[in-house]
């Protein structure tokens, strides 16, 4: 599905006018501080339930206001196959956040829903912004988030198991921190945690295999020497030749000393290695960035193969990627029929992105003081 309508109220500096987007490419440009990132942030808000730029909702609501709303209309996609002006909206998503009352209300097709996943499953939003490169350069948490986003969109039931697992982990941590360890209570938590962890890791592992296949295909097409010998491995968070319950029982004293759970899905990672060493130590900054882009493309490919359309938000990537890589990215996303939003300060150059090939259907917008005008 693709986001073809957006309307916000009290969202940063954005004007409240409704905007129609292409289910294919949308090129958004404007001066510094005009509101380009805010447009993408509002789209991200619908698909992720939060800002991809800041953690505090308060920062997103317009100055002097206490409540924001974002509405989105989705058409059934796939990008490039439809003329969106003819395409009816098939789903309506809404999110309202009252920052004073700390309340969020969610709506799908006019009906109130409780869980963010009800919104997210309709709009798989993938962000490529300057912070995304931490997927390779940063800690395991970023890679876990990267994998879990895909796992959720392949297998939406994952979010319930994930939440239950989080809850048991935090209860287990509390027990670990209690002065004298209650061994019988720990065993109860271990059994619950162990069962959830095995289920969670099975799903992660299955989806990781799909991802790895897609990634290797993307890599093969790129045919770049520097990726020779690159290895991607899923680490579930413990050595699965043993059950998690056994591993936990064998590390009781160590966990008690640290005061938190050291083994399990909360420690999962995608390990990226070349010649046995983490790529963050061997690849250049540019190569690490390309690797992240390829991983994002592979994510899009997994979902596209399942008939799902990803909405990619490319925020301010001109500063990070040279023109060759921007062209590669745009063309791959076009091939995968993703919906794409690209922001830039300069006037976009579709002739450069699609030189010598058929350009996708696109719309171009200029942003000034939070207002989008189509060109
Ligand atoms: N909560 C808010 N309420 C109102 N305006 C805000 C709020 N937060 C930020 N702004 C303003 O909104 C404007 C748009 O910011 P945004 O980051 O979207 O700009 P941009 O076009 O992406 O800029 P740049 O090219 O510099 O990254 C800025 O002028 C900013 O100061």
UniProtKB/TrEMBL annotation:
Which is a GO BP term held by this UniProt record? double-strand break repair
Q: Does the keyword Glycosyltransferase apply?
A: no
Q: Indicate yes or no for the key word DNA damage.
A: yes
Q: Which GO molecular function entries does the Swiss-Prot or TrEMBL record give?
A: ATP binding; single-stranded DNA binding
The UniProt entry, under SUPFAM superfamilies, shows: P-loop containing nucleoside triphosphate hydrolases
Q: Which domain of life is it from?
A: Bacteria
Chain sites annotated for binding ATP? 30-37
Q: Which InterPro entries match?
A: DNA-binding_RecF, DNA-binding_RecF_CS, P-loop_NTPase, RecF/RecN/SMC_N, RecF_2
Q: What keywords would UniProt list here?
A: ATP-binding, Cytoplasm, DNA damage, DNA repair, DNA replication, DNA-binding, Nucleotide-binding, SOS response
Please provide one cellular component term from the Gene Ontology annotations of this protein.
cytoplasm
What subcellular compartments does it reside in? Cytoplasm
Q: Which residue intervals define the domain RecF/RecN/SMC N-terminal in the entry?
A: 3-347
The family assignment reads: Belongs to the RecF family.
| Role summary | The RecF protein is involved in DNA metabolism; it is required for DNA replication and normal SOS inducibility. RecF binds preferentially to single-stranded, linear DNA. It also seems to bind ATP.
- Know the name of this protein? DNA replication and repair protein RecF
């Amino acid at each position: 599905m693709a986001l073809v309508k957006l309307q916000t109220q009290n969202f940063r500096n954005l004007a409240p006018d409704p905007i129609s987007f292409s289910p294919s490419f949308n090129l958004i440009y404007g001066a510094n501080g005009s509101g380009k990132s805010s447009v993408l942030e509002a789209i991200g808000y619908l698909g992720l339930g939060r800002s991809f730029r800041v953690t505090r909702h308060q920062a997103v609501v317009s100055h002097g206001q206490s409540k924001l709303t974002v509405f989105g209309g989705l058409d059934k996609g796939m990008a490039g196959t439809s003329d969106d002006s003819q395409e009816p909206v098939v789903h309506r998503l809404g999110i309202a956040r009252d920052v004073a009352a700390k309340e969020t209300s969610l709506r799908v097709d006019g009906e109130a829903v409780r869980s963010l996943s009800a919104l997210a499953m309709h709009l798989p939003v993938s962000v490529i912004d300057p912070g995304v490169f931490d997927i390779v350069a940063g800690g395991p948490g970023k890679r876990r988030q990267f994998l879990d986003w895909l796992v959720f969109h392949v297998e939406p039931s994952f979010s319930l198991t994930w939440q239950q697992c989080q809850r048991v982990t935090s209860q287990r941590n509390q027990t670990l921190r209690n002065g004298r360890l209650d061994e019988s209570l720990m065993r109860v938590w271990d059994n619950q945690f162990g069962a959830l962890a095995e289920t969670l890791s099975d799903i992660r592992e299955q989806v990781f295999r799909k991802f790895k296949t897609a990634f290797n295909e993307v890599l093969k097409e790129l045919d770049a020497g520097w990726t020779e010998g690159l290895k991607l491995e899923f680490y579930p968070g413990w050595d699965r030749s043993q059950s998690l319950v056994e591993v936990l029982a064998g590390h009781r004293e160590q966990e008690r000393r640290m005061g938190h759970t050291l083994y399990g899905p909360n420690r999962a990672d995608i390990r990226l290695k070349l010649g046995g060493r983490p790529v963050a130590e061997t690849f250049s900054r540019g190569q690490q960035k390309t690797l992240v882009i390829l991983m994002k493309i592979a994510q899009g490919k997994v979902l596209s193969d399942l008939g799902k359309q990803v909405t990619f938000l490319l925020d301010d990537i001109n500063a990070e990627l040279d023109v060759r890589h921007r062209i590669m990215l745009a063309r791959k996303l076009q091939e995968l029929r993703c919906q794409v939003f690209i922001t830039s300060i300069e006037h976009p150059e579709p002739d450069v992105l699609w030189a010598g090939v058929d350009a996708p259907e696109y719309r171009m917008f200029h942003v000034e003081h939070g207002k989008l005008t189509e060109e």
